[in-house]
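pasting for ref
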Amino acid sequence: MTEILTQNPGALVGVSVLFGLLVGSFLNVVIYRVPKMLEQEWKQSCCEILEQEAPESAPFNLVTPDSTCPNCQHKIRAWENIPIISYLVLRGRCSACRNPISIRYPIIEFVSGALSGLLAYKFGFGYELAAALIFTWALISLTMIDADTQLLPDSITLPLLWLGIICNTQGLFTTLPSSIWGAVFGYLSLWTVFWIFKLLTGKEGMGYGDFKLLAALGAWMGWQALPLTILLSSVVGAVIGIAGIIILGRDKNVPMPFGPYLAIAGWIYFMWGPQITEAYSRYL
């Protein structure tokens, strides 16, 4: 099997797409449940601080309980959980109550599969591909969690940061010194912006999760990736934010999560950073 995947790029891309689709189904669980798990932990911590007895609750984690329809609590059977195909067969509705199923579930599965295929095409079979897949799946989860809740959980950002440094001890994507300084400068750059903005306006312009996410991106790609990543994320965020205000009529005073733009910009640099830098240099 290893020989087939090594010698046949088409087979590797196909396997990666299928595996990415399956992982995308799991990412939907992560995106929904991790914020709920954090909320449970916070409530328990509050009860401990107040010296109150925490109310009993059923186990809730990434494995338990089984997935159910949020409307009728119908237990999702195996054949109803096949990425994309089940959504199409069920015509986007619960098999029991016929309540609509959000289109974002198959979209996340599709994005996970498509990006996994792109990574396989770029890196080929090996450790680089394995690491790049984990990096990408983590960014998908963080993007959607931040978009939903304006939270970037430490349980994802911090392991991602350390994994980037560990991978680069072997020089997978950059040198170890560049990785370490990328983590340091990634955190400090947004931390500095945060405090300057807060001192000038008295408001918090971003959350600490953004610092940790940029530190993780720096750990994976090195400090050299940070300027362009910040620039790209700022441009994308500004364009989408202005479009939302003008086209969708969103309130400009409503906070906008910055994590998704950091994650998107970081992944773009991860894939095409040298080409973008070269094109930008030629333009200048």
